[in-house]
Design a protein that fits this description.
The chain is mainly beta and 134 residues long. The chain contains one helix and seven strands. 17% of the residues are buried. The mean pLDDT is 85.
């Protein structure tokens, strides 16, 4: 794997590494539970369930085994493993390593006129992040 700067996301399907990403965005959100009452005009909230999504981009290569594995996981609804290495410099180690199970919620390919084709994928984390252990 090539040297990378910053965070690395590695996706595993059936114990096979399906490659690394070109770019990644990790979004966290919490449902807000309305606990307002009649004593104030201001709304009051408590945090509810939390969700995380991971959006990745990568170069698309036709007939690539990694794309085929991702497509199959999406089509069949099987979970994939997502490993997140914070401040990784080599794509496999770093500080704050975490792992989670995820479902592929979207998968698309874009092919611009002047540029390489790219894969865009969104992963819905299911069950939250856990501390990564080798």
């Amino acid at each position: 794997m090539a040297v990378v700067n910053g965070n690395s996301i590695i996706i595993w399907i059936d114990e096979n590494n399906v490659g690394s990403q070109k770019g990644v965005t990790i979004d966290s959100s919490a449902d807000m539970l309305d606990v307002s009452d009649k004593t104030s005009a201001a709304a009051k909230f408590l945090p509810g369930k939390t969700t995380d999504t991971v959006s990745c981009s990568a170069f698309y290569v036709r007939d690539d085994g990694a794309y085929t594995a991702l497509r199959t996981a999406y089509d069949t609804g099987i979970e994939v493993e997502v490993d997140w290495f914070h401040t990784s410099t080599d794509g496999a180690t770093g500080t704050g390593e975490q792992t989670a199970q995820a479902l592929i919620s979207s998968l698309s390919v874009s092919a611009p006129e002047h540029g390489p084709a790219e894969l865009e994928m969104t992963l819905q984390i299911t069950g939250g992040w856990q501390t990564y252990s080798v």
